[in-house]
Request: fold
Amino acid sequence: MSQEISKIPQATTKRLPLYYRFLQNFANAGKQRISSQELSEAMKIDSATIRRDFSYLGALGKKGYGYDVQDLLAFFRKTLDQDEATNVALIGVGNLGSAFLKYNFRRNHNTKIILAFDSNSPHEGEKISGIDTFHPDRIEEKIEEFGIELVILTVPSRSAQEVTDRLAKTSIKGILNFTPVRISVPDSIRVQTIDLSVELQTLIYQIKQS
Reply:
């Protein structure tokens, strides 16, 4: 029996979608079983880390046998709710937002952007990359109408908290924040912040240190 995701270390939960992606690659290649070492070589992650991650999830493998690829796929599909689609809204169709709309998680994802908001869009809405896009003054109305659970935030920094406060009044469950602002939300909403400038500076530092 696997543990609840909320009780698993955050570093492990971030690797779960990666495990699922690489297991799909193994399955597509016709592999029936794999070892932690094979997964380690494919993912460039230490095999001890993989075994530790899997130990948090329960007894997934058999000693001397390794891991059954289809069993693992089924496990991760259920753990990550891959059979249940999550409706996503994008707020801010600038350069980054436009890239999200064009990509739109088409491959091997259970998430899809079905709604967008941009200050340049008309009140009555328009299609951008095939996605219904409205002016932000309709955020509360359309979030509920489309049954949105997760929002990708790519607005200017000055607008981040104001938009977040409006989102907090809706029924969304999570925000993927691409602004450098540390937004405040109620406990009912989870936030994951991805600051591209910080990630770049971290990479530069690591390169220089090595």
User: Anything to note?
Assistant: The mean pLDDT is 87.
